[in-house]
Design goal:
This protein has a single domain, classed as Up-down Bundle (Growth Hormone, Chain: A). It has 18 helices and two strands. A hairpin with a 5-residue loop joins strand 1 and strand 2. The protein has 465 residues and is mostly helical.
């Protein structure tokens, strides 16, 4: 519940309080990770080609570009007895959970309708994916804004690293549960059961944060007074969002640099997050493109595909386990060595991992490379936010995080459209003469983008606390 005390001074949080703060993000990432791992095989089973799969993935970046800035700005101007950001966390989780539960049942929903047409089930799946991604973005922006809202500046780096810690742990549990049950009890969880589990985790995690985290709410009159002063000074514009973007980018030349770094970084990151499961299924396990097969032939590859999905989940769990383990140490290292040095090194290591995956497609190499890539993932989820938070103007935290998210979401659009198209046309015939796609190309292009990001990071001049 919100703390409506007029004293809006920020406080230092203990490690126990920071851990409690990130539980909702654990649930959010649990849901997002399940979406990452299983949406590819699910949509492919409903008839999605490599290009259609990539276009459906546009849900994430498009809703990120549209939803996060809007929700961020709304949350800046929201005053309820429950808090400013908390209502967005709750409703994002509620509707996101519903989408997660319905997604794997798209075929069943299509079958009960009186009207049927080709790929109707795929249309429902795409709809639910868009709902899930919109809700994740609606919750994520205000959640990030809670840090500059409520936590002392000196702790922004460690607070963002605790969120990385939660992202790593949530991803490990989400990706690792089904493979663990198969290994330990020879029980294979259904896709529907895994998505349902993710929906419950998303809702319960956010509920915990909504109930236990005490927001510090600055007096509404104070915020309105500042806005009035800016209006009188001629700083307000007829198009508030455009003005907000200008003010955000003009705060310091370093803001533009950090945004550019994010742009290239997220081209690299999404090359893995979107295409890794498909790479494992089709390149590592050599399952042909099932959309090109008859249903009878596709059934032959079904056991191999399930095994491949489990291995992809194990690799993604390890990837996020490294993120989970290294999240706090990397923040401590950044405090000693500087955010930009640590972040640049982490991105270089991730690029090396990508090249190993692309050019050495065997299980041991891919598994180890995913662990190495997890170092870059932990850094990307924390250090750019830590660098940026020093330049955020008081009272615009939600708006600033929403604008910053554009530089995370926009490159994802390029990955979904251009890289998806490129993979779709890059086909080859396997040893049995069956059609497949060059999914490994995603990692070669991703590695180049990460190297560019790492180099650009070295040019940032960090602001002292």
């Amino acid at each position: 519940m919100a703390n409506t005390n007029m004293d809006s001074s920020l406080k230092k949080l203990s490690y126990a309080q920071l851990l409690n703060f990130c539980i909702g993000f654990f649930g959010l990432q649990f849901a997002w990770q399940m979406r990452i791992v299983l949406s590819g095989p699910l949509t492919e089973s409903l008839g999605a080609s490599a290009l259609l799969f990539s276009l459906i993935w546009l849900a994430g970046p498009v809703t990120g570009i549209v939803v996060q800035p809007i929700i961020g700005a709304l949350s800046d101007n929201t005053y309820t007895k429950f808090g400013r950001r908390i209502p967005y966390l709750f409703f994002g989780a509620l509707f996101g959970a519903i989408g997660l539960i319905l997604l794997p049942r798209s075929g069943e929903i299509a079958n009960i309708l009186p009207v049927h047409f080709d790929k109707l089930a795929l249309c429902f799946a795409a709809l639910f994916i868009w709902i899930i991604d919109a809700c994740v973005n609606a919750a994520q922006g205000p959640y990030r804004a809670l840090i500059p809202d409520n936590i002392e500046k000196s702790q922004h780096g460690i607070a963002n690293s605790f969120l990385s810690f939660a992202i790593g742990l949530g991803s490990v549990v989400a990706a690792g549960t089904a493979p663990f049950l198969k290994w330990a009890f020879d029980f294979q969880m259904s896709v529907a059961a895994q998505f349902t589990m993710a929906g419950i985790a998303f809702l319960l995690g956010m509920l915990w944060t909504c109930i236990t985290f005490k927001e510090i709410i600055p007096p509404k009159e104070e915020i309105e007074k500042k806005k009035l002063e800016e209006l009188k000074a001629g700083k307000a514009a007829s198009v508030p969002f455009v003005q907000s973007v200008k003010e955000f980018l003009s705060a310091s030349p370093e803001v533009g640099k950090i945004c550019t770094i994010q742009f290239f970084t997220w081209i690299g990151l999404m090359s893995l997050l979107i295409y890794f499961t498909q790479y494992v299924v089709h390149i590592l396990y050599q399952v042909p493109n099932t959309t090109e097969l008859t249903s009878n032939v596709a059934l032959i590859f079904e056991p191999i595909q399930t095994e491949a999905q489990n291995f992809a989940s194990i690799c993604l769990a390890f990837f996020n386990l490294i993120c989970f383990v290294i999240a706090i140490p990397i923040a401590k290292m950044a405090e000693m060595r500087g955010n930009k040095r640590v972040h640049s090194a982490a991105l270089f290591l991730m690029a090396v991992a990508y090249l190993l995956i692309a050019f050495m497609p065997n299980k041991v190499t891919v598994f180890c490379a995913m662990g190495l890539a997890g170092i870059g993932w932990a850094s990307a989820l924390a250090l750019p936010f830590a660098m940026l938070s020093k330049y955020i103007k008081e009272g615009t935290e939600g708006t600033s995080m929403g604008i910053f998210n554009i530089f995370i979401s926009a490159p994802q659009v390029l990955v979904c459209i251009l890289l998806g198209w490129f993979i779709n046309i890059s086909t080859f015939a396997d040893k049995n003469g069956l059609v497949n796609n060059h999914w490994e190309y995603a990692f070669i292009i991703g590695a180049v983008m990460l190297v560019v990001s790492a180099i650009l990071t070295t040019f940032v001049k960090e602001k002292e606390d």
